[in-house]
């Protein structure tokens, strides 16, 4: 099969999905009232999950006690001595790309954050110090809300009832997020159905559908970990032979649109999730995230169904590999 035939097939896929699903690259928005009707789990599955389409529910987590309680000052007053795991980076990109000077010259690495143990008071104090040269973010994942912040579970739902009914399962993980406005989540995808709830501040998402995979460049990178970031002698420690495939493009960098011209064809959905809102990010959708300073959020990961759509995605991924 020639490369031109494959390229033409990608164009057909883009045009067909654009006509059926992505006529207007805007995330649908509904109200909490719409999402509280008895038939909402069915409509949510029919209109969004089955179509692999995101939706924002305004006020979707308004009923969480956390919405009126959780502020940086609340955590300072209530849990000042609590030990927390903080991701620390020199540039705000935890689990992202950064250059390292090697014997072969400058090499792009996928770099994990340095994980530092500190008290909640120390963490919040660092967030207030805008002159520091390191960036802190609580973003451990792996259900860190239930594992590390169990005392906070009474302030949020242990599941999203309508999502659990629609997916016919309980969440695999519930994660807690709080950090610096300079902390950025690089473009990536997850094998989870994601219900993302903002409880203080806001998050700005850029979403790209998995059908646009041919226009989202990937490369294979060596893996490293930041070390000694707080001491200002930051370096990237090589993880030996470990490598990872990662998205090569940052949608915030104009030069990347020139370096990777195919990325200009990717359909970008941009949406702000405000305090009290809940965003459904379908499985395998690419997403890039920024936030307001000291934004607080939780998200619920439901394991995706490995159905026929996943088979098509794997085929598309194989066709796009360099």
Order of helices and strands: HEHEHHEEEEHEHHEEEEEEHEEEEH
Radius of gyration using CA atoms only:
20 Å
Content-based structural category = alpha+beta
Low-confidence stretches: none
Helix content: 10-25%
Characterize the largest beta sheet: strand count, sense, and whether it forms a barrel: 9 strands, mixed
End-to-end distance, in Å?
15 Å
Mean pLDDT: 94
Major beta sheet, strand line-up? 1-2-15-10-17-8-7-3-6
State the helix count: 9
Q: How many DSSP E strands?
A: 17
**Approximate strand percentage:** 35-45%
- What is the general shape? globular
Précis, in short:
The protein has 322 residues and is of the alpha+beta class. Helix content is 25%, strand content 35%. α2 (40-49) crosses α7.
Which tags fit this structure?
alpha+beta, globular, 322 residues, single chain, four-stranded mixed beta sheet
